[in-house]
Each structure stands twice: as structure tokens, then as C-alpha cells.
Fold:
Amino acid sequence: MITVSKQISEHFSSDEFRCPHCNKLKIDENLVYKMEHIFSKLNASKCIISSGYRSDEYDIQIGGFVGNHARGIAADCCYYDKDGKIIPSKIVICVAYDLGELKGIANIDGNYVHFDNRTAGTYYGDERVSNNSVWTNPYDYFKVSREDVIKYTGEVIENDKKVNVFYKVKTNNTGWLPEVKNLEDYAGSKNNAITDVAIKVDKGEVKYRVHVKGGNWLPYVTGYNINDKNNGYAGNGKIIDAIEVYYYTPKDIRPFKRAKYKVNNYAYQYDNEVSEGQDGYAGKFGTNIIKFQIVIE
Ligand SMILES: [Zn+2]
Structure:
């Protein structure tokens, strides 16, 4: 954390991140390096910070709670192109997303973006809509084409075609648990049997279904919305003992990828494969699932 006046990177000085209310300063240099990386990819001419560090008091005053600005890991800013024109926030967001370095990225008003260098979870937001994550792929959500971005970057930014998977489970005692990304954690809670599962990916599609303990397979679902009991998650509130997931690789990603997933401490299952000792699903009929993990590889 930087707390003194200092040039942090080529285009950013720590003073630009001071709290406007008390002039105090605390800013994460890694956030600034990532903003500088975005600056260079955009071929920008300048970046104006509208809000960097905010003291607890000021953060509460303007936002109602102590957030990432008060932790010194967030900044709101606007980038300008070589002609001095504002680069639309949706372009900046796509570039930040492609670089894959920041987990907190949100549109503020079409010009300004919010970046934060959070380490746990992801926040892909649109503050015109809400303060929750609302998109998984900014190209789709903001209706941006690769060509729109290339006008600024002059190149396609290869984000190594990584596919991220996000998922959450509900158990018989806890309700829905927090979302997990890839193998950063597992979904589940000690000794609580899982009843429902929701899965989404940021590229391509998934279809998945669960098997009810002592019952049958429920229909496949493809959505991710715990309020949509028809297609938003798999499960009917009863304890499950098996899960099947299939990943559809989009055309612009080759070689094909598969859903690699496991329950409890059993071996990994790939898609619905039945070769090499796989069952076509993860789980064991008659045994509660208390832990679930998935990654797309
Ligand atoms: Zn912000």
C-alpha cells in the first residue's frame, strides 16, 4: 500500500488517488500497475481518476458503507484516446476483461469505470443497473465487437481463451451458499447434503442435471438463476447423489474443452464420458453429496 506522494507508474501518481474529503492516501500499487497495463493496451493519452482512496467516513457518506475504495484497492476512472476523446467505458471494460488481471470491473456511466483489485470472488458490474455482478462476458452484455476494441488496441488481446466457470449450491440446512469460481474453493458446507446446483460459464454453454437420492435424474438445465426453478438451477430441494455436466465449446475456442468436475473426494469426471472407468456423471447413487467442484479445461 502506498501512503505517500509518489509517481507510481508512467501515468499515475499517488496524489491522484487521495481522498477528496480528508486528503488522506492509501492505494494498492498493484491496482495501479494493472490500470497502467490497460492504459498501454488502449493506446490512451490520459486517464482521469474521479475517485481513488476514500476514508471510511467519506465512503459511508457517499455510498452508505465501507467498501473497496476505503480499503485502498479501488479506483473510478476515465481513459482518453490519442485525439483527447473519451474512450467509452464498454471498450475499457472489454480490454480489462481480456487482460484478466482485475476481478472487480464495472461500468459507472458509459464513460467512467470502476476497477478494484479484490482477491476473492469477482465483481463484473454495471452500476447503472445495480451494485451486483450482472455480466459474465462484457462483449455480449455491452454489445461490443472485437473490431470495436481493435480500433483502440490495434490488436486482439489473447486472454489464452480461458473459460471461467461459476457455481453455487444449496444444502438441506444452509440455503444457497456463496458463488465459487473454478477451483478457487469448493461449493458445499461440512456435513450438509447438497440439494440444488447452479452453474454458468463465461464462454460457451453448459447443460447439467442432478440425480435425486432414491429417485431419478431431473431434466437438464442450462441457465443460472436461483429464482428460476425451471431452468435456473438443477434440483428440486431434495438431497441429490449425482451430478452430470456437459460443456459446449464455442466456435472461436479450439481445441475443445470439457467440464471437469467432482463430488466429495471421488475422482474427477469429464463431461458425460464413460471411458476409463468414468460413470458419465459424478457421484455415487445412495450417497449424499456434500462437496462439489468444477473447472473447464
Ligand atoms: Zn468505485
Notes: Residues 69, 74, 76, 114 surround zinc ion (CB under 6 Å).
